[in-house]
Amino acid sequence: MVQHAGRGIVITGSGSAVPTMALSNQELSQIVDTSDEWITTRTGIRQRRLAAPPQSLVDLAVPAAEAAIAMAGLAVTDVDLIILATSTPDDLFGSASMIQARLGATQAVAFDLTAACSGFIFGLVTGAQYLRAGTYQNALLIGADILSRWVDWGDRRTCVLFGDGAGAVVLQTADRDRLLGFELRSDGTQNACLTLAYQGDPQSLTGPVAVAKGTYQPIAMNGQEVYRFAVKRVPEVIEKALYRAARSVEHIDWLLLHQANQRILDAVAQRLKIPAEKVLSNLAQYGNTSAASIPIALDEAVRQGKIQPGDTIAAAGFGAGLTWGAVIFQWGPG
Ligand code: COA
To answer: Distance from first CA to last CA of the chain, Å, rounded?
Structure first.
């Protein structure tokens, strides 16, 4: 079944923004008991960018969004939908509206979407449904996260992996459909593998009435379980999305995976028999930037001229929830 019902969709612009402050593996080894050699061989990460204390998620998201809107050749007031995929909003009530205000996107409705490291893929499909239905014409999707706020910088099993950043794309309706197929999945039974969970202690108000007052606990992860999950489930979901797109692995020009670990990227590519030169990777520079990793890697490859209009891209996200999903699309209008 090809998922083409309704209007066609194209991705017409991309943008990204990362903090200037970098933390190398060498510097990290002065904070926790680790080494550049361990991190590089186990993950492929060499450094990560970290948001400086006054830098907000909105500060990162806005320039990424502006670059995507400019590439698409739209006026900001043409944008009618903004989806912010994030697990780390500046405000738990949501940060999308602040982005809408800072951009001056006065015609756009804006909301947050949370699906951890799958957020960009889930957001892409969510935005596409509004466009397919004819409700909106021009959607801005931002994937942005500042996980450094929630990492335990004393836990070497997690703190070496993550970095901060933002990426964005513009989706538009079009006669020719470039969003070829998708598949999204969730499995809450494995939720405990990767959490950033709220924990509260009872605070008595009056009589038997009490509330749970506390905060979110740092990221906790079973690395080996998450690794096994990704290497098994990501190839499956890409194959399913390819089937829905009536395409096969041979049609893929670029494999664009959530940038979690170079070994995961390599293992997924190997299982799908996709050659290494078709695998996009920027892990060495940024580490795992959660919902931002796919649009940052996409934007860099587009601006470097690697991805050309019409190229077929298999993009897949995976992470906490557990959630995972894949989208098959062709880059650019035309
Ligand atoms: N530096 C040095 N040693 C470390 C370390 C670090 N940063 N982190 C863990 N170790 C140690 C462990 O304590 C363990 O030591 P031991 O053998 O004495 O007990 C050893 O290294 C091996 O640990 P292990 O957890 O088996 O390593 P691994 O090969 O599974 O690699 C991950 C760990 C986290 C890199 C890997 O499991 C992974 O990438 N998982 C997926 C995580 C992920 O992508 N999460 C986000 C998904 S969105």
So the answer is: 24
Reading the block at residue 180, the tokens are 């070829």
| Paired sense of beta strands 81-85 and 109-113, if any | parallel
Q: Which amino acid is present at 41?
A: T
Residues within a 6 A CB radius of ligand 1? 34, 38, 42-43, 117, 156-157, 160-161, 221, 223-224, 226-227, 260-261, 288, 319
Q: What is the pTM of this model?
A: 0.96
Domain containing 19 — which CATH number? 3.40.47.10
For 162, the domain range is 8-179
- Give residue-wise pLDDT tens across range 109-140: 999 999 999 999 999 999 999 999 999 999 99
200-203: list long-range contacts, CB under 8 Å, 24+ apart.
none
**Whether residue 139 sits in one domain with residue 185:** no
Residues 139, 111: contact at Cβ < 8 Å? no
- Domain count for the chain: 2
Domain endpoint, select from 179, 203, 231: 179
> Model confidence over 229-262: pLDDT tens digits?
999 999 999 999 999 999 999 999 999 999 999 9
Same domain, 156 and 185: no
Domain stop point among 150, 179, 208: 179
Which of 117, 224, 262, 266 for a ligand 1 pocket mutation test, highest count of atoms within 8 Å of Cβ?
Answer: 224
Residue 87, CA atoms < 13 Å, CB-side half-sphere = 28
What is the residue with the minimal CA distance to atom 8 of ligand 1? 157
Residue 215 buriedness (CB in 10 A; 0-12 / 13-18 / 19+): exposed
Confidence class of residue 333 from pLDDT cuts 50, 70 and 90? Answer: confident
